[in-house]
Design brief:
single chain; three-stranded antiparallel beta sheet
Length: about 160
């Protein structure tokens, strides 16, 4: 048996989310869901679900907050000036500055979205390898196929 990395597996990586308050200027973090993985059955479920009670030794499923992905994206450029600019910011300022710079509604935003898709899929692959979980990336899954059209996951 192998764990199938597909769009559903990808969606579970959004375990922690960020939101802005009404005014749009204040940043707050909250955990909306924590997912766990049963290495015996390869089931992924909410830590609060009934199914989780039956799991023997579950593993925490990998997740990345929006801020985590933003920080990885800044590092991806390997630009010391850019990294330095963002390193001086608290989380709230980081979030706001990031979107001011990259949410152009065009190519910059599209590039970031592609990066995030690759990043989250690669995160699952790395997690499987680090935990000796047999897996396969389902290239027939429409989302995975679409994501992989942009290149090789090894770029991250």
């Amino acid at each position: 048996m192998k764990f199938e990395i597909n769009e559903t597996a990808y969606r579970f990586t959004y375990g922690e989310q960020h939101r802005l308050d009404k005014g749009g200027s204040k940043y707050s973090r909250f955990i909306c869901e924590v997912y766990i993985f049963d290495p015996d059955t390869f089931l992924v479920c909410s830590k609060r679900s009934y199914s989780s009670k039956a799991m023997g030794s579950p593993l925490l499923y990998p997740f990345a907050s929006g801020l985590d992905v933003q920080k990885a994206y800044i590092k991806f450029f390997k630009d010391k000036k850019l990294e330095s600019e963002f390193s001086r910011l608290d989380d709230n300022a980081y979030w706001n500055t990031f979107w001011k710079r990259f949410d152009d509604g065009g190519q910059k935003l599209a590039d970031y979205n592609k990066f995030e898709d690759f990043y989250r899929i690669k995160m699952i692959v790395d997690w499987c390898e680090n935990n000796s979980i047999p897996y396969f990336v389902n290239k027939k899954d429409e989302f995975i196929r679409y994501t992989m059209e942009y290149g090789d996951l090894s770029i991250i």
